[in-house]
Amino acid sequence: MTTMLAEVNFSELVKSPVATVARLQDTPRKGLLLHRRGDEEDLYLTTAARAEQVTEVVDSTTRLFVALMKSSPEAVTMLTAVFPEAFPWVRFLPQKAVQEFLVEFMETARAASDLGTVGPIVPLIAAWKSTAEVYADQELYSKLTSPEAGDFGEVEPPEVPTD
Protein backbone atom coordinates (compact mmCIF):
# COMPACT_ATOMS: atom_id res chain seq x y z
CA MET A 1 0.00 0.00 0.00
CA THR A 2 1.40 3.37 -0.96
CA THR A 3 1.23 6.01 1.73
CA MET A 4 0.04 9.47 0.81
CA LEU A 5 1.86 10.98 3.76
CA ALA A 6 5.19 12.70 3.50
CA GLU A 7 7.49 11.61 6.29
CA VAL A 8 10.37 13.58 7.77
CA ASN A 9 12.39 13.53 10.93
CA PHE A 10 11.42 16.14 13.51
CA SER A 11 14.96 17.48 13.32
CA GLU A 12 14.37 18.40 9.67
CA LEU A 13 11.49 20.65 10.76
CA VAL A 14 13.73 22.29 13.35
CA LYS A 15 16.64 22.78 10.91
CA SER A 16 14.62 23.83 7.85
CA PRO A 17 11.14 24.90 8.96
CA VAL A 18 10.15 26.82 5.81
CA ALA A 19 11.21 24.05 3.41
CA THR A 20 9.68 21.34 5.58
CA VAL A 21 6.34 23.12 5.92
CA ALA A 22 6.37 23.76 2.15
CA ARG A 23 6.55 19.97 1.65
CA LEU A 24 3.25 19.49 3.44
CA GLN A 25 1.51 21.73 0.89
CA ASP A 26 2.64 19.34 -1.87
CA THR A 27 1.23 16.21 -0.27
CA PRO A 28 -2.26 14.90 -1.14
CA ARG A 29 -3.27 14.87 2.52
CA LYS A 30 -1.67 18.24 3.24
CA GLY A 31 0.29 16.81 6.12
CA LEU A 32 3.64 15.54 7.32
CA LEU A 33 4.40 12.66 9.62
CA LEU A 34 7.17 13.90 11.90
CA HIS A 35 9.31 11.08 13.28
CA ARG A 36 10.81 11.65 16.70
CA ARG A 37 13.74 9.88 18.33
CA GLY A 38 13.55 6.94 20.67
CA ASP A 39 10.27 6.22 22.38
CA GLU A 40 8.79 9.64 21.66
CA GLU A 41 5.47 9.53 19.85
CA ASP A 42 5.55 10.70 16.23
CA LEU A 43 3.68 13.90 15.41
CA TYR A 44 1.43 14.84 12.51
CA LEU A 45 1.69 18.35 11.09
CA THR A 46 -1.07 19.80 8.95
CA THR A 47 -2.68 23.14 8.28
CA ALA A 48 -5.45 24.46 10.51
CA ALA A 49 -7.76 24.68 7.50
CA ARG A 50 -7.14 21.02 6.66
CA ALA A 51 -7.77 19.98 10.26
CA GLU A 52 -11.05 21.93 10.25
CA GLN A 53 -12.09 20.26 7.00
CA VAL A 54 -11.43 16.80 8.42
CA THR A 55 -13.35 17.65 11.59
CA GLU A 56 -16.28 18.99 9.54
CA VAL A 57 -16.43 15.83 7.41
CA VAL A 58 -16.28 13.51 10.43
CA ASP A 59 -18.91 15.53 12.29
CA SER A 60 -21.25 15.73 9.28
CA THR A 61 -20.89 12.03 8.51
CA THR A 62 -21.55 11.11 12.11
CA ARG A 63 -24.66 13.33 12.24
CA LEU A 64 -25.90 11.79 9.00
CA PHE A 65 -25.56 8.22 10.23
CA VAL A 66 -27.10 8.99 13.63
CA ALA A 67 -30.07 10.67 11.94
CA LEU A 68 -30.44 7.73 9.55
CA MET A 69 -30.41 5.24 12.41
CA LYS A 70 -32.99 7.26 14.38
CA SER A 71 -35.29 7.58 11.39
CA SER A 72 -35.58 3.95 10.44
CA PRO A 73 -35.18 0.54 12.08
CA GLU A 74 -34.41 -0.75 8.58
CA ALA A 75 -31.40 1.54 8.48
CA VAL A 76 -30.02 -0.06 11.64
CA THR A 77 -30.52 -3.49 10.07
CA MET A 78 -28.82 -2.39 6.85
CA LEU A 79 -25.90 -0.72 8.65
CA THR A 80 -25.49 -3.78 10.87
CA ALA A 81 -25.21 -5.92 7.74
CA VAL A 82 -22.43 -3.75 6.28
CA PHE A 83 -20.62 -3.08 9.56
CA PRO A 84 -18.26 -6.08 9.00
CA GLU A 85 -16.76 -4.20 6.06
CA ALA A 86 -15.40 -1.60 8.50
CA PHE A 87 -14.78 -4.00 11.39
CA PRO A 88 -14.24 -7.54 10.02
CA TRP A 89 -13.89 -9.01 13.52
CA VAL A 90 -17.58 -8.29 14.30
CA ARG A 91 -18.31 -11.50 12.40
CA PHE A 92 -17.47 -13.30 15.65
CA LEU A 93 -20.11 -11.38 17.61
CA PRO A 94 -23.74 -12.45 17.83
CA GLN A 95 -26.01 -10.36 15.59
CA LYS A 96 -27.58 -8.58 18.57
CA ALA A 97 -24.12 -7.60 19.83
CA VAL A 98 -23.18 -6.22 16.40
CA GLN A 99 -26.26 -3.96 16.56
CA GLU A 100 -25.37 -2.92 20.12
CA PHE A 101 -21.84 -2.06 18.98
CA LEU A 102 -23.16 -0.10 15.99
CA VAL A 103 -25.52 1.97 18.15
CA GLU A 104 -22.91 2.52 20.86
CA PHE A 105 -20.29 3.40 18.25
CA MET A 106 -22.51 5.99 16.56
CA GLU A 107 -23.71 7.50 19.85
CA THR A 108 -20.14 7.73 21.14
CA ALA A 109 -18.91 9.17 17.83
CA ARG A 110 -21.62 11.82 17.96
CA ALA A 111 -20.85 12.76 21.57
CA ALA A 112 -17.09 12.74 20.91
CA SER A 113 -17.59 14.91 17.84
CA ASP A 114 -19.40 17.47 19.99
CA LEU A 115 -16.35 17.51 22.26
CA GLY A 116 -13.98 17.82 19.31
CA THR A 117 -12.11 14.61 20.09
CA VAL A 118 -12.02 11.03 18.86
CA GLY A 119 -10.49 9.83 22.12
CA PRO A 120 -13.62 8.12 23.54
CA ILE A 121 -14.12 6.09 20.36
CA VAL A 122 -10.77 4.30 20.55
CA PRO A 123 -11.37 2.43 23.84
CA LEU A 124 -14.92 1.62 22.73
CA ILE A 125 -13.60 -0.13 19.61
CA ALA A 126 -10.91 -1.89 21.68
CA ALA A 127 -13.50 -3.15 24.17
CA TRP A 128 -15.79 -4.54 21.47
CA LYS A 129 -12.84 -6.09 19.67
CA SER A 130 -11.85 -7.82 22.92
CA THR A 131 -15.41 -9.11 23.21
CA ALA A 132 -15.19 -10.48 19.66
CA GLU A 133 -11.93 -12.22 20.58
CA VAL A 134 -13.71 -14.01 23.42
CA TYR A 135 -16.50 -15.16 21.08
CA ALA A 136 -13.90 -16.31 18.54
CA ASP A 137 -12.17 -18.53 21.12
CA GLN A 138 -14.72 -21.23 21.99
CA GLU A 139 -12.66 -22.59 24.86
CA LEU A 140 -12.34 -19.18 26.47
CA TYR A 141 -16.00 -18.39 25.80
CA SER A 142 -17.05 -21.63 27.48
CA LYS A 143 -14.88 -20.92 30.51
CA LEU A 144 -16.21 -17.39 30.90
CA THR A 145 -19.87 -18.31 30.46
CA SER A 146 -20.02 -21.55 32.44
CA PRO A 147 -21.94 -21.48 35.73
CA GLU A 148 -18.75 -22.53 37.54
CA ALA A 149 -16.90 -19.49 36.24
CA GLY A 150 -18.39 -17.23 38.87
CA ASP A 151 -17.56 -13.55 39.09
CA PHE A 152 -14.06 -12.60 38.01
CA GLY A 153 -14.39 -9.18 39.59
CA GLU A 154 -13.77 -5.80 38.05
CA VAL A 155 -12.37 -5.90 34.54
CA GLU A 156 -9.65 -3.49 33.48
CA PRO A 157 -10.31 -1.58 30.27
CA PRO A 158 -8.51 -3.06 27.26
CA GLU A 159 -5.21 -1.59 26.17
CA VAL A 160 -5.66 0.85 23.34
CA PRO A 161 -3.14 0.59 20.51
CA THR A 162 -1.24 3.83 20.02
CA ASP A 163 -0.36 3.32 16.37
Keywords:
mainly alpha; YefM-like fold; 3-stranded mixed beta sheet; 3 strands
Describe what you observe in this structure.
There is one protein chain. The protein has helices spanning 10-15, 17-25, 48-71, 73-86, 95-115, 121-136, 138-145; strands spanning 6-9, 31-35, 43-46. The chain has 163 residues and is mainly alpha-helical. The chain folds into two domains: 6-46, YefM-like fold; 52-149. The chain has a three-stranded mixed sheet with strand order 1-2-3.
Protein topology:
Blueprint (H helix, E strand, L loop, with lengths): L5 E4 H6 L1 H9 L5 E5 L7 E4 L1 H24 L1 H14 L8 H21 L5 H16 L1 H8 L18
Parallel strand pairs: 1-2
Antiparallel strand pairs: 2-3
Helix pairs in contact: 3-4, 3-5, 4-5, 5-6
